[in-house]
Write a structure and sequence with these properties.
Elements lengths: L2 H13 L4 H17 L7 H10 L14 H10 L5 H8 L4 H8 L2 H4 L8 H11 L10 H12 L4 H28 L1
Helix pairs in contact: 1-3, 2-3, 2-8, 3-5, 3-8, 4-5, 6-10, 8-10, 9-10
Protein name: HD domain-containing protein
Keywords: Coiled coil
Pfam family, one: HD
């Protein structure tokens, strides 16, 4: 069984019934990851697995700290998930900056951020997919997040602070995809 198949089963079990909109989002993110998978050869499957599991920490039974990257990574660490997959989930979409705002930096630091092109592609897939799993732009995605949470919410503050890094990951991935076509 491919890692992405295992990951899809795990995510479906944890999200499909309890959080159907989140399940739609992760399926859309996984589809975007499949589009970028060719950039990474055999590691393309790891990218898809990380995409489908990136929000597993939202599952009600896993939400111990209520910071989904940390809760998801801690859960995955208790399974057969490879360490690299766990770290990608922990650090997706600039999570270390949000962890700092939440006072959870030390806890998230258990999981090293690899700062790689594959990590950028995961961020790209997440930040260019709507909550309903449809493609969008990073600008529209961040605007939607701020609207959904409100201007004073910690998540809105986080995305404003993280904007340069999120945009950078998206732009780098889009350039890699364009270069692949040439």
């Amino acid at each position: 069984m491919l890692l992405s198949e295992w990951a899809t089963d795990v995510a479906r079990d944890r999200l499909a019934e309890s959080l159907p909109r989140r399940w739609a989002h992760v399926q859309g993110v996984a589809e975007k990851a499949r589009q970028a998978g060719g950039l990474f050869g055999e590691e393309g499957d790891l990218l898809v697995a990380a995409a489908v599991l990136h929000d597993i920490g939202y599952a009600p039974e896993l939400a111990a700290t209520r910071f989904h990257p940390l809760d998801g990574a801690r859960y995955l660490r208790t399974t057969d998930a490879p360490a690299r997959l766990v770290k990608l989930v922990a650090n997706h979409s600039c999570a270390p900056l949000e962890a700092e705002l939440r006072g959870l930096s030390a806890e998230l630091a258990e999981f090293e951020d690899e700062k790689s092109a594959l990590r950028d592609a995961l961020w790209w897939a997440d930040m260019t997919t709507t909550p309903d799993g449809k493609p969008t732009t990073v600008t529209d995605r961040v605007a939607e997040i701020q609207k959904r949470y409100g201007p004073e919410d910690i998540v809105s503050c986080f995305v404003r602070w993280a904007w340069p890094e999120l945009l950078g990951a998206v732009e780098r991935t889009e350039q890699r995809l364009a270069d692949q076509v040439k």
